[in-house]
């Protein structure tokens, strides 16, 4: 696998993904009982914005940095920006926190997280990042294969009823990746039916996406919500025109929580022809 997220950290796709991720975690924190987060493709957890990879693409400048310069944004976006800023000195942007670090920042003492990473050097960096956090387990290996061992989750021998499985693969082989995601979702539901699952997907080839969404929404989850941000027209399969999040077993009225973010993201991150979409593919009866 050749993918390295350091080239893309803080771009428009990260912005959408992490806004949704943090909003989901905040929904779990409305109750005192513990929750569990499984991050199947964790990366290294923290990315230097002055690194060679980041400076080569400058994608963060067209993503999170544009939002940081805005005086007022919807609450769900401001919450995300505060989480990013918490990993940086006051008034500066040196690093961008990946999904495992954003989750860990939001965990309470009773909550737990497992983060998986296939690439050895990235996994080593992730293990070092969380070496002193007993709430977090880091596993080197294929995150899809770890689902069987990690769900349903337990803490101190007791099952954890609520939680999130975050699936954010590199999509180096897009159609093949969708097959693996569907298998992972099916296994997650069979082992932990009350889990919320959130899948990030790139928007390049709409036909493949629609096929995947139809298959995923047919799984026996109670609900399926799609949240999409296109920063340019959906017409070139050679560029990342945008991305989306599929949320299965979404919290009640979750569309109302994340919906206000979309017009702001379109306005500040989009080019001519940018668009957003928020659709329930299936709602709880």
UniProtKB/TrEMBL annotation:
The record marks 3 as: Interaction with substrate rRNA. Its EC number is 2.1.1.266. SUPFAM superfamilies: S-adenosyl-L-methionine-dependent methyltransferases (SSF53335). S-adenosyl-L-methionine binds at residues 18, 41, 99, 117, 142-143, 168. The keyword Transferase applies. One of its GO terms (molecular function) is RNA binding. It comes from the Bacteria. Pfam families: RsmJ. One of its GO terms (cellular component) is cytosol. Gene3D superfamilies: Vaccinia Virus protein VP39. It catalyses: adenosine(2030) in 23S rRNA + S-adenosyl-L-methionine = N(6)-methyladenosine(2030) in 23S rRNA + S-adenosyl-L-homocysteine + H(+). The active site is at residue 168. One of its GO terms (biological process) is rRNA base methylation. Keywords: Methyltransferase, RNA-binding, rRNA processing, S-adenosyl-L-methionine, Transferase. Specifically methylates the adenine in position 2030 of 23S rRNA. Belongs to the RlmJ family. Monomer. This is Ribosomal RNA large subunit methyltransferase J.
